[in-house]
Design a protein that fits this description.
Elements lengths: L20 E8 L7 H17 L7 E8 L3 E9 L17 H12 L5 E7 L8 H7 L5 E6 L6 H7 L2 E4 L5 H6 L4
Parallel strand pairs: 1-2, 1-4, 4-5, 5-6
Antiparallel strand pairs: 2-3
Helix pairs in contact: 2-3
Length: about 180
């Protein structure tokens, strides 16, 4: 695993086992994700699902939002063991990360511990700064998962707490993201 340049990987302590952890997957399906980016996204969601399913400890619930020119709920909060990652994702349109962050805050009303995983190439095209600022107090951490071959490192650094290249991500590295 090689972290994206200029993005710190913050070390934290393990979550208490009694807390239900909420994972929110924000999946960029914009036109810039066509090809390798979209395939990396699909593989990354499958890796996350298989890595976190069936593990002991605290319960994990997961919800998904896709975004291109608009944001949509791909699946509601679901026990991670029952999650069926979407395979029918298509790419097109612009990258409305702000709309996805707003939908997450307004629809799911996240509460801690909540981790947000953003699968993207790091090229948001809407106003994402205000929705991010409104969401930050309600989530524990935002993890960027870089999809594809042309990822904008600077953009990722501006909206994530840590980031990883999906092409280098191992199950063990992914498990470490479940820390506070």
């Amino acid at each position: 695993m090689r972290p994206l340049s200029s993005i710190p990987n913050k070390s934290q302590t393990q979550m208490p086992p009694s807390n239900t952890v909420h994972l929110y997957l924000l999946m960029d399906t914009s036109a810039s994700m066509t090809g390798a980016g979209l395939e990396a996204l699909k593989q990354g969601v499958r890796l996350l699902s298989s890595t976190f399913s069936g593990r002991g400890g605290h319960p994990i619930l997961c919800a998904g939002i896709t975004y291109d020119s608009t944001a949509r709920i791909a699946f509601p909060l679901t026990p991670i063991d029952a999650l069926h990652p979407p395979n029918d994702l298509d790419s097109g349109g612009t990258s409305a990360l702000g709309a996805a962050l707003g939908l997450l805050k307004d629809h799911f009303a996240p509460r801690r511990p909540a981790l947000v995983y953003i699968f993207s190439d790091g090229e948001p095209t809407d106003d994402w700064q205000r929705p991010l600022a409104a969401l930050r107090p309600h989530v524990t951490r935002i993890i960027g998962l870089a999809c594809g071959l042309a990822v904008n490192d600077d953009a990722f650094a501006s909206f994530t707490d840590e980031a990883h290249w999906l092409s280098d991500l191992t199950p063990e590295a992914l498990r470490r993201t479940l820390t506070l």
